[in-house]
Amino acid sequence: MGQYKETESEFQGEGVAFEKGDILFGKLRPYLAKAWLADFSGEAIGDFFVMRPSVDIDGRFTVYQILNKGFISIVDGSTFGAKMPRVSWDFMANLCLPTPSIDDQTAIATFLDQKTAKIDELTQKIQSQIATLKEYRQALISNVVTGKVDVKEEQP
């Protein structure tokens, strides 16, 4: 799912208001699959669609549907503009998504939240291990080329 990154700058202009629970979808270059379930109210600046789920829709479930490769492929195939491809609201608004019962949506979203959280945790651990190995590699190279490690003694 998308992430919100706070910045120091303030934008003075027109944006689209969104509320906690709304879904924001980046309409510019939709193949980048930028979707976020808002966890606070604010104003979207730039090329975003703001969608407000009805009471019988679990926003988390809808975000997972939107981020699905099949959905993104369909949306991306409808874009206009060569340098800055965008999807139109008319196209997005007319797409039909399967809508199971709210209980099923919630169960599916909860399952995916749990599984993707584990994947994210493992990814973070692996990235940390890779960073440690890169540091070790750099230190080893430095120690060998500066003579701190005698390679003559290290070889069989």
Q: Please give the domain count.
A: 2
**CATH level-four homologous superfamily name of the largest domain:** DNA methylase specificity domains
* Beta content: 5-15%
The number of distinct β-strands equals 5
The strand line-up of the biggest sheet is: 3-2-5
Shape: elongated
Model regions low in confidence, pLDDT < 50 over at least 5 residues: none
The first-level CATH class name of the largest domain: Alpha Beta
Name the average pLDDT: 90
CATH topology of the largest domain: Adenine-n6-DNA-methyltransferase TaqI, Chain A, domain 2
Radius of gyration, Cα only, in angstroms?
Answer: 23 Å
Task: Quickly count the helices.
Answer: 5
How is the biggest beta sheet arranged? 3 strands, antiparallel
At CATH level 2, the architecture of the largest domain is: Alpha-Beta Complex
Structural class, by secondary structure, is: mainly alpha
What is the element string, with H for helices and E for strands? EEEEEHHHHH
How much helicity do the residues have?
40-55%
Measured between the Cα atoms of the first and last residue, the distance is 51 Å
Coiled coil: 112-139
GO molecular function: DNA binding
Pfam family, one: Methylase_S
Keywords: Coiled coil, DNA-binding, Restriction system
Structure described in brief:
Belongs to the type-I restriction system S methylase family. Helices cover 45% and strands 11% of the residues.
Plain-language structure description:
- It is a single chain.
- With 156 residues, this protein is mainly alpha-helical.
- It folds into two domains: 1-99, Adenine-n6-DNA-methyltransferase TaqI, Chain A, domain 2 (Alpha-Beta Complex), CATH 3.90.220.20; 100-148.
- Helices cover 45% and strands 11% of the residues.
- It has five helices and five strands, in the order E-E-E-E-E-H-H-H-H-H.
- The protein has helices spanning 59-67, 69-76, 89-93, 102-145, 151-154, and strands at residues 16-18, 23-26, 35-37, 42-44, 48-51.
- It has a three-stranded antiparallel sheet, with helices on one face. Strands 1-4 form a two-stranded antiparallel sheet.
- A hairpin with an 8-residue loop joins strand 2 and strand 3.
- Helix 1 (59-67) packs across helix 4.
- The model has no long low-confidence stretch (mean pLDDT 90).
- GO terms for molecular function: DNA binding.
- Residues 47-130 form the Type I restriction modification DNA specificity domain.
